[in-house]
Here is the input.
Amino acid sequence: MALAPLLFAEYTLTLLVIYALLALSLAFVWGLGGILCFGQAAFYGLGAYTYAVVSINMGGSTLAVPMGVLVAAVAALALGAMMFYGRIGDVYLGVITLVFTLLLFKYASSTAGSEYVIGQARLGGFNGIPGFPPMNVPGKPEVVVHGLGLYAVVVVAVLACWALLRWVGTTAFGRVLSGVRESELRSELCGYDVRLAKTVTFGLGGGVAGLAGVLFACWAEIVTPEVFSLGVSAEIIIWVLVGGLGSLWGPMLGAVLLGALKGWLGMQQWVDSGLVMGALLVAVVLFMPRGVMPALDLFASGSKQEDGHDR
Here is the structure.
């Protein structure tokens, strides 16, 4: 991450690292908690929209950044509590999170009228919210963070979130989550509150996705309903599946590589990027169902064992 700006433009790198943070949020919720969520794009978009609205009304990003994370986390906690305490099944959970995302997309797309205003911020419908204040040094709105500085902030945020979620996985709470993922019934019989554990996990994942949305808004300097789209929801699932479900680094790497591939495909008109992404997903599911990173680890461990037998 430190050497990448020497080889590539920091503008593109910043977006790819934001993708990695978004993939990390689902890798934690799905890989550690066993919760298949099609709604990470909802919390991603909530973080982006909240940042835009608050920064316009407050004139800077000092309060907008934590508010974006907080709104996304609270929305995830509320939705998770309703689903898990209502004992919604896994299939219906995926449907509900997807519908929640599409509802936000529909609402954000229908706010073109002048009456759709939050303070001084107009939601703008399909045109979104442009022209809001960029990220600045806390307490100093005149000192803007952009370019290489924004890339450094995004990298620090990604590493901090990765360290936090990795630490959570090593705690007693993380071990409870692993047990819940393997068997909810056995975990309940052991006396653990499965519903509370899954709700907290869902809220943490939503907060990380909201932070990714905040950083995306700072990078793009415009927020549109596209952040809630079905395409974004599907891409997050593909990143995690290709990178490797059950790890944190794998989905992050998958997001960076597939995001770069999508950007490269967008510069040509011969092949549709959606077809390539779909073909990659089918290939991974058929030939590497555990994902690329676990398959590489398994191959490396197998090579070491063969080398040891030869010796």
Residues 194-220 form the longest helix (27 residues). The chain has one domain: 4-228. Residues 4-228 form one domain.
